[in-house]
Amino acid sequence: MSTGVLGTEKRGIRELGAEEKVGWDEVTRGVVLNSFEGDASNVAHQKAEERQYADFNSYTATVASWRIIKPVYNRDICIDCQNCWVWCPDTSIISRDKQMLGIDYDHCKGCGVCVEVCPTNPKSLLMFSEAKEQEEALAEWPEKKKKEKK
Amino acid sequence: MAITSVKNLKEFSTANDRFEGSHLLCPGCAHSMIVRELMNATDDNLVVASSTGCLEVCTAVYPYTSWDTSWIHIGFENSATAASCAEAMYKARKKKGTLPNPDAPVKFVAFGGDGATYDIGFQWLSGAMERGHDFTYICLDNENYANTGGQRSSSTPIGASTSTAQAGTHSYGKTQKKKDIVAIMAAHGAPYVAQLAPNKWKSMAKGFQKALETEGPCFINTVSACTTEWKFDPKDTISITDLATDSLMFPIYEIINGTELNILYRPKNIIPVEDYLGAQGRYRHLFKPENRHVIERIQKDIDEKWEYLQRREEARV
């Protein structure tokens, strides 16, 4: 087996020799990124914290630097409707046992969809500047809006 | 077969996400909402093929992958082919008894954008539907080639301004109507064809579960609001989709066995299409007096289509 100028052997790509025949149901591996370490057959029944993520999984990466505004979560007003969970495009709402636990700031891009779909009055999620501290934001929370009489 | 409960949103939220964050889709992109809703609706093993497009380039940027399932990237045109070939090989190896885990439920899913579905992969998709493989094809329809700068596709509706059909003094944007892909797929005699939207998460999850259970090729067209090319604020993705479904620009319906049509969502108050068009930058030019006739035409087309769908539902043919 020659490595050639491209160094195919080094890159882990198998060259087919004359004596080596591949059957129709054998696939030569291209580039494979494993999402998990070890056995991943039960992933659909595991929470994120129970999984063994490989370094290739984007769960281990962060896009926090994309944000200029961030959502802040107020547990006292939340009714656990899960609207934010279902419509979060970045899998950043942490929800366990039908309860909303908080926001995953590693994966949140600050789009603000969760705030828009929040049905409570006042909203239990609001957007604040990225630099603002959590406690400071919670202290500024608006009062309940009264219904305007028609 | 175990399948996640979609009875209500609280039950649904116990699903374990298999689509991870830190993908590079735009903030507020509807693609990832749709993929999450679909993948959370099942706990079967999935074999996913993605055509080139926003979803593919943004979820598999080396060295990261956002998919917790088997996933393959294939050319622009042939995600349907990849999924159907994987399905054929799976069946053959099951018959031969060479599968390591023959009892595990495996489902085959192909994702494509509207460019890959309506235009470039149309022939391949049609072929896979005709061969009758047991797979589900999901089209993420954002009505343009958003990944390459918003060129027109045959899914772009009339009047929309795109980078290759720009509105200006002599043009009101795209002059041709949108292709009716759902009807074309139903005409293949596919056992399950549907048009769904991410704001109606229940019909989305149920529709996908139905497609997975159904043997044979299934097609789902989903409306994916594109914050970059439709030109609206990222936070408004869901409200824009609400306007789309309530103005009946995107009616939500399914067609079973190519004939039996069911409307899955009837808006309580049908809103004029102007509200939907006015919320997006790509239609701004239509509100000039000389382009008003295009809005009237869009409204007329929508009314006719809705009338047609209702009649088809009633007639059961």
Plain-language structure description:
Chain A has 150 residues and is of the alpha+beta class. Chain A folds into two domains: 11-61, no CATH class; 63-139, 2-Layer Sandwich (Alpha-Beta Plaits). Chain A is 11% helix and 13% strand. Chain A contains three helices and four strands, in the order βαββαβα. Chain A has a two-stranded antiparallel sheet with strand order 1-4. In chain A, strands 2-3 form a two-stranded antiparallel ribbon. The N and C termini of chain A lie far apart (84 Å). In chain A, 28% of the residues are buried. Chain B has 317 residues and is an alpha/beta fold. Chain B has one domain (9-315): Rossmann fold, CATH 3.40.50. In chain B, 37% of the residues lie in helices and 14% in strands. Chain B is built from eleven helices and eight strands. Chain B has helices spanning 9-12, 30-40, 54-59, 79-96, 114-120, 122-131, 181-187, 201-213, 237-246, 273-278, 292-315; strands at 45-50, 70-73, 106-113, 136-141, 192-196, 218-223, 253-256, 260-263. In chain B, strands 2-1-3-4-6-5-7-8 form an eight-stranded mixed sheet, with helices on both faces.
Topology:
The complex is a heterodimer of chains A (150) and B (317).
Chain A: E1 69-73, H1 83-87, E2 93-96, E3 99-103, H2 113-117, E4 125-129, H3 134-139
Antiparallel strand pairs in A: 1-4, 2-3
Chain B: H1 9-12, H2 30-40, E1 45-50, H3 54-59, E2 70-73, H4 79-96, E3 106-113, H5 114-120, H6 122-131, E4 136-141, H7 181-187, E5 192-196, H8 201-213, E6 218-223, H9 237-246, E7 253-256, E8 260-263, H10 273-278, H11 292-315
Parallel strand pairs in B: 1-2, 1-3, 3-4, 4-6, 5-6
Antiparallel strand pairs in B: 5-7, 7-8
Helix pairs in contact in B: 2-8, 4-6
